[in-house]
Amino acid sequence: MLMISIPCKLVESIVDVSVDSLVELEDHLETALSVTRAQKAELMLKLVESLKEKENLLKEENQVLASQVGLGTIGRFKYLAIAFLASSARLIINWKSLIPALEKDACSLNLKDLEA
Predict the structure, then answer these.
(1) Is residue 2 part of a domain?
(2) Number of domains making up the chain
(3) What is the rounded CA–CA span in Å between residue 18 and residue 1?
(4) Is 65 among the domain residues?
(5) pLDDT in tens, 21-39
(6) What is the pTM for the complete model shown?
(7) What's the CA gap between 72 and 69, in Å, rounded?
(8) What CA–CA distance (Å, rounded) separates 84 from 80?
(9) Rg (CA), the chain
(10) Which contiguous run of DSSP H or E holds residue 85?
(11) Is residue 7 part of a domain?
(12) What residue range is the signal peptide (predicted)?
């Protein structure tokens, strides 16, 4: 690798390479490495920014879809609470019976509300 990097100076042998040439080569390598790292950091920052924008768009889309379904944050919590109660009690839930239960306060729910 070193023999390829220093043109025409290594025709004789590696021993003939001067310390100054090696220091110069090291400086070039450090500069190239710094430039490469800076470019990588810039690309990573752009990628993170792009992913944050995509996350925000997905959050907005999720909110729109949730509002279209009629399940806001509280509605989703109620739905999950009802689903958990139903599965733990091994009840068969009729989806139409969930709608009145979702309209009630989550604290006042009981298993009787879930029965078909």
Answers:
(1) no
(2) 2
(3) 16
(4) yes
(5) 899 999 999 999 999 999 9
(6) 0.42
(7) 9
(8) 6
(9) 33
(10) helix 73-89
(11) no
(12) none
